[in-house]
Design a protein that fits this description.
106 residues; alpha+beta; rbstp2171; three-stranded antiparallel beta sheet; 3 strands; globular
C-alpha cells in the first residue's frame, strides 16, 4: 500500500510536521505521529510490554487504517518490536533515543 505525496501532504496538514514513516517489505508504508506524553507514560509504565507497545503505536497511527496495521502484525508480529520497527519509530520520535539529550558539566 504505497502512499502518494498528496496523501503525505494532507497528513502533514492534519497532524503537523512530526510524522514518521516506516516501510515494511517492499512498499507497505505506515505513518505515525509523535505520541502524547500520556500515551508515552502509559507505555513506559506498563508491565505488559507487547500489549502496551501495540496500544502506543495504534494511538499514534495515522496511515493506513487500523485493520491494515493489525493485518500486518498478524503476518509479521516482529515488526512491532524489532530494531527500527513500529515501536522504535514512535518512541524515538518522542526523544527516547541516544543523543537526544547532551549532558554538560557546569
Amino acid at each position: 500500500m504505497p502512499i502518494s505525496q498528496k496523501q503525505i501532504d494532507e497528513l502533514k496538514a492534519q497532524h503537523g510536521d512530526t510524522l514518521i514513516g516506516v516501510v515494511v517489505g517492499i512498499d507497505d508504508t505506515f505513518i505515525f505521529k509523535r505520541p502524547s506524553r500520556a500515551d508515552f507514560d502509559r507505555w513506559y509504565d506498563s508491565d505488559r510490554k507487547v500489549a502496551a507497545a501495540r496500544e502506543l503505536t495504534q494511538a499514534c497511527l495515522v496511515y493506513p487504517d487500523r485493520d491494515s496495521y493489525i493485518a500486518t502484525l498478524d503476518k509479521m508480529p516482529g515488526v512491532l518490536m524489532c530494531n527500527s520497527g513500529f515501536l522504535d519509530a514512535v518512541v524515538n520520535s518522542a526523544g527516547f533515543q541516544q543523543g537526544s539529550v547532551t549532558l554538560k558539566k557546569l
